[in-house]
Design a protein that fits this description.
alpha/beta, Rossmann fold, 2 domains, five-stranded parallel β-sheet, about 15% strand
Length: about 400
């Protein structure tokens, strides 16, 4: 009888252990020693200045974590693929991350159209899309437990900007130039919604492809329409060309960008061409000469690693990676998608080293609604208002 009892007990324990091993093995991208995290972003296309800086900062955080032994005994394997800022290439790259690399989660995926195209495949495999490098509403709306957005949306940023320029600066002829993409249309929608709320209409619009380089006709159209403020659904290269084109025409209209154009590559145009260019941003860029020791330490390490100063998109990547690391730590040794999501939702009033605050909850996967108005002055971004704008 005792022998039979022991055999039954051992058999039960074996079944339990087998079930536990099977459960651990079923968590894609997670082993006893490794967590696989992936990024699809622009490393060589028209937005590479953003994708490269963002993914480099993320890698820096993960490398530092690995040097300290990893997270709960696991080191992070970070795989970055180049989308070249094209949807077909982004889809191909995500297929690799999902089916070859078996990523646990995606972080910092660049571009609105690219994220919109890839999220269905990610979610079908229960892969979270965390802090994509875009401020489109679709990154957190409609609610999906696998979505975590980092920024106030383009829509919200441009509604706030439109309200400010009409009510505070007396602008009466609001116009829009935008990329003919999901990103640009989100900007356009924000401006149209706010002008309607103010009892106005958008006076004129122009749309272009992300790769367009000639904006003479577009700028001439807006100038001839009598625009006194132009809201811009543009990124970096097209922003710069439009600014330069307007200045060459002697047209000193207010030009207003958003998160995608908030970059030092815009602020430092030769000859001070971008001085006076406005931009909405979900957080304020901390220059490397910032007086805060922790910011200086970050900038120093980043430059030593990559040979250049971090831009704003590097800073948001640094924050994104640190929040993900915190959530992975809080999720514990038994890491699953469910435990990761629960850990993310438990993060409240997280303040990064640059001054931004992020909060989440069970029904709140959008970190912040704040956006600020800045302007280029002597080649640097300077806040116009010390408090966030709203509408």
């Amino acid at each position: 009888m005792p022998t039979r009892f022991v055999r039954v007990l051992l058999g039960t324990l074996a079944c339990c252990l087998t079930g536990a091993v099977a459960q651990a093995a079923s968590v894609r991208g997670v082993t006893d020693t490794e967590i696989v995290i992936g990024t699809v972003t622009d490393l060589s296309g028209v937005t590479a200045v953003q994708g490269v800086n963002n993914s480099d900062a993320i890698r820096m955080v993960f490398d530092d974590v690995n040097k300290k032994g990893g997270i709960n005994g696991r080191k992070i394997k970070y795989v970055v693929e180049d989308s070249q800022y094209t949807v077909p290439r982004a889809v191909q790259a995500m297929n690799k991350l999902l089916n070859n690399d078996n990523i646990f989660l995606a972080i910092g995926d660049g571009g609105t159209p690219m994220n919109d195209a890839n999220m269905p495949a990610q979610f079908a495999k229960n892969v979270p899309n965390v802090f994509p490098l875009t401020a489109a509403r679709s990154m957190y709306e409609p609610y999906n437990r696998l979505k975590f957005g980092q920024f106030a949306s383009y829509y919200d940023q441009m509604r706030s900007a439109t309200k400010y320029f009409v009510e505070k600066r007396g602008r009466k002829a609001v116009c829009v130039t935008y990329q003919d993409s999901d990103f640009g249309k989100d900007v356009l929608a924000g401006v149209e919604a706010e002008t309607k709320a103010l009892g106005m209409k958008v006076v004129a619009t122009t749309a272009h492809k992300p790769t367009d380089t000639d904006f003479n006709a577009a700028v001439s159209k807006l100038k001839d329409a009598g625009c006194d403020v132009v809201m811009m659904g543009t990124i970096v290269r097209d922003t710069n060309i439009i600014i330069q084109t307007a200045r060459k025409m002697g047209w000193n209209v207010d030009l207003v960008g958003q998160f995608a154009s908030y970059d030092t590559a815009v602020a430092t145009l030769p000859g001070g061409a971008s001085d006076g260019f406005f931009c909405m941003t979900p957080a304020l860029y901390a220059y490397p000469d910032d007086k805060r020791p922790e910011v200086q330490a970050f900038a120093k390490e980043y430059k030593e690693r990559f040979g250049r100063d971090p831009n704003f998109h590097g800073e948001v990547g640094y924050t994104a990676a640190n929040v993900v690391v915190l959530a992975l730590q809080k999720a514990g040794k038994d890491l699953t998608v469910d435990s990761f999501i629960k850990a993310m939702e438990s993060i409240h009033d997280y303040k990064d080293i640059f001054g931004s605050e992020l909060s989440f909850g069970p029904d709140q996967h959008h970190a912040s609604n704040k956006s600020f108005l800045t302007v280029v002055k002597d080649g640097r971004w300077v806040p116009v208002e010390t408090t966030a704008l709203a509408y």
